[in-house]
């Protein structure tokens, strides 16, 4: 039981990080970046390839998230900005971010081959006993990173001017421009940040998943579920709480129902949560589809 | 080439949103410390002119100079850095942020000069004391008149060369209109240069030195409040109904 | 709101051979030519080699799916990801029941459609309450659950799937037509395309778009938005189930053909082709389903190319292929014109050339002289009865302080009743409670002597109460005239039922002409007819306001509530508005106005109620209100 909780929390931290990454970019641009999972994947692949090439595995751990960060910015300029520039309320980003993910995934599969490759264990082979349960160093690292990410983001959002201008950009980009904010830079920075977080999530989980070009889709889905359960659209930190809950539930389903249950059980939970509190468990109100400001004529 | 004390010169501005030009051949000027009103019926293009000056029109031709700088090709966020600031139609506050955050965001481009921002903030609170009282309140919870004060305050926080106001009286009760008008007169006394779009002739006449009458996307008349007062009926019948 | 009033006035002089009739003949000929061409093409497909045939048929089935999704996403803004789920149910249901249990496949078709339609109705009813995103997620999960079931259950044979049934052979005399399944698929596509095309030409189309973009306005026009959404979604789901029925005859039925990425692909199809258009989904389906067959390269590179193409499609042509085609055509037309100038917008909103007499005539046509149910002016007793009666209305949001505190207002029949007060005094809240948009915390509202607390906005609209909104709620994509047409909803019966075969019906053509004329009259009465063919997104704020006013009296209501109608109007337009309101009053309408422009309001009103901080200060005549000391202090200023 305790073991299940622990491993649930650690995988949940990964889902939560991904959910936060999705929430951050959604928060500012109202776009769900369906290529977020591919950023996690590219961080893993870069790190794996570097360590395969004989470099110190920690070099890969440093460079992988950086690659994800670059990819995040690229996804903004290729898949999001051209669409929002034409029509802020278009749903075209659904297609373009998915298309971007598809391109990245298959380009990587073509470049390094579609097979899975090994990943250095990092801290994964340092077991730590907690009563009956065992937790690895890597899992502890994941939990620490998650806690740090939540605290840092809350600080940026609430206490810094950048966070406030991000909120302003989210609410009314044209007005944000009119007070002198370069909304393009603000948005690009948020996408970079969300790419970075997804990349960090990637190198944290990689010792368990190994490196495969098609990892992104699954994690994207779970990150999305974490965001929606928690109410990430309102506040990125909520996505982390949603992720932790999701992780525990998925592990629990696997051990108490059957080994396939994590394929569908979390979604069942999501439906129930949304029926009870449509705005997510940890939210107070729903800014998702706020009334559109009338266009001045 | 331009007379030195013109703080805003717009020449041959044309532009619009979709397939249509809303305004054509707009040429106007604003001297330093002057208040100029744009009057005209609905759909005449008054708001479009302000948006054109602010760099918010997608299609636009003509030139715009603010101070000594040609800002025609500047993106909005550069114009907003000290050249012009706008209190837009419908106020458009950042609804889920507090009054003070709205004001501080107005000075976004001065974020590296905290003392300056504080001084500006104090001057806005001096102008609208009620805002100091409500400064930690979420801006969407304010009444229409108070929201308009925040919008004007946010514009002032940018401390720009020219102020653009779009129908500050719209939807306000007579008492609130009076407060806003008095604030604008006070700003004039402090030497601000402002361009005011209004539909209410009385409001424009109380605030402005000169008036442009816009109709059908063009400037059809340049006049003064005195003339409007003297031969008001005739002029009003001609253009405003 | 009696429709009989309208029909009597439409006896047109029947011309012998009108150009209209000649025009109708060309139309019929063109339609016949298109049908003939389509049949020939179908014949060709039915005899084509198997590979080509299955390519076309799969594309056609996807086109049906895309058209159905566009009917919910394009028309109602409901982005469903449930397509895969309904498609799977249709295919599996048919396959299992016919191969394992030996049901007749033709008997299964209505069964399948009924089942998927019902599931759609249930899914819609449970998830449409909240928000668009909630709906998207619920339908996504629905598809996910269906595919997980299909993978895990015994009866569906897991990942391998099942071999679909054979399509029954046709009688010998029909053999020359070729493969019967090809005919079935192609005719189904034709039927669905026709239905969607018809809806876009019917009176329900502006109503649907107003539900999508301006639901409060739709409700205030008497449209019950929620049931319409559920019905449209259920019908689309039934059609998707039918497509699943067709699909299972084409070969193997396996879970991977229906998972959520299929749903997303269908969404991509409509976005690539052009959302809310009839040809768009078909073009998108053809592109997406044929792409992997036509491009033979390394599978990964093929996916990369597909990704790049879909990004380019939505970034370079954001309105899809149909939008791009439209623009190319428009450019070609413009090149043909003698002058290369950009078209100008109508200069001034208000047309001074129209005489008052002519306007009165339009109002007469719109609103017959005295309202049918209005009492005679001298029937004193009846006339003094309140038509709207608010008794002790209290309202608060959540646990906050009351916005309205025991407010009682009686509005007499035939009166113009003003509602003034400082900002935040609760005027709009009271209007929203009378109109049924908000529910009071306590107290009750009587309209025409009937207690209406149980009725929502649409129900009260159907009882003859119409209202405008402080900020205009209109569909920007539609013309001002089409927006006014939404206001006529309910004047002619069976608009929804007739929608799918609209152009075939003579009655539909007549109703369309009548209502269009009515909408035109309403726009003329506010002096905005020159903007009738302009999209609301392209008109200035004041014209939106005038359009909104036209939508209110186009159905000949008994009571209208105007929430700051003069905001954004010039003084001349305000004067004209005052004239119209007096005319309306003369025709027996009761008008409630919230307004700040006191110079406009006071001369107009029979009675004025002043609200302050959620309480009634007084109700009285304009003079009484003007002389009242409290009113002067809190509202008018010195």
Could you explain how this protein is built, in words?
The complex is a heterotrimer of chains A (297), B (241) and C (638). Chain A is globular, with a radius of gyration of 19 Å. By secondary structure, chain A is mostly helical. Chain A has one domain (2-276): ABC transporter involved in vitamin B12 uptake, BtuC. In chain A, helix 1 (2-29) packs parallel to helix 5 (137-159) and helix 1 runs antiparallel to helix 10. Chain A has eleven helices and two strands. Chain A has a two-stranded antiparallel sheet. With 241 residues, chain B is of the alpha/beta class. Chain B has a domain at 1-73 and 162-168 and 192-241: Rossmann fold. Chain B is built from ten helices and ten strands. In chain B, the strands form two sheets. Chain B has a six-stranded mixed β-sheet, sandwiched between helices. A four-stranded antiparallel β-sheet of chain B has the order 2-1-4-5, covered by helices on one side. In chain B, strand 7, helix 7 and strand 8 form a beta-alpha-beta unit. The radius of gyration of chain B is 17 Å and the shape is globular. With 638 residues, chain C is of the alpha/beta class. The two termini of chain C are 45 Å apart. Chain C has helices spanning 4-8, 19-47, 50-76, 83-100, 105-127, 132-152, 180-201, 204-213, 215-220, 225-247, 260-273, 279-294, 299-316, 320-336, 356-366, 380-383, 427-435, 457-462, 480-487, 495-498, 506-525, 541-553, 571-586, 598-601, 622-627, 629-636; strands at residues 162-163, 252-253, 386-395, 404-412, 416-420, 442-447, 450-451, 465-467, 559-563, 590-594, 607-612, 615-620. The relative contact order of chain C is 0.11. Chain C has three domains: 27-260, no CATH class; 356-464 and 557-636, P-loop containing nucleotide triphosphate hydrolases (Rossmann fold, 3-Layer(aba) Sandwich); 478-553, no CATH class. The longest helix of chain C has 29 residues, at 19-47. In chain C, the strands form three sheets. A six-stranded mixed β-sheet of chain C has the order 8-9-10-5-11-12, with helices on both faces. Chain C has a four-stranded antiparallel β-sheet with strand order 4-3-6-7, with helices on one face. A two-stranded antiparallel sheet of chain C has the order 1-2. In chain C, strand 3 and strand 4 form a beta hairpin. The chains are: A mainly alpha (297), B alpha/beta (241), C alpha/beta (638). Chain A binds chain C through residues 78-79, 82-83, 86-87, 90-96, 98-103, 105-107, 109-110, 114, 228, 260, 263-264, 267-268, 270-271, 274-275, 278, 286, 288-289, 294-297, and chain C through 79, 126, 130-134, 137-138, 141, 144-145, 148, 152, 264, 267-268, 271-272, 275, 298, 300-301, 303-304, 306-311, 313-316, 318, 471-472, 476, 537, 539-541, 544.
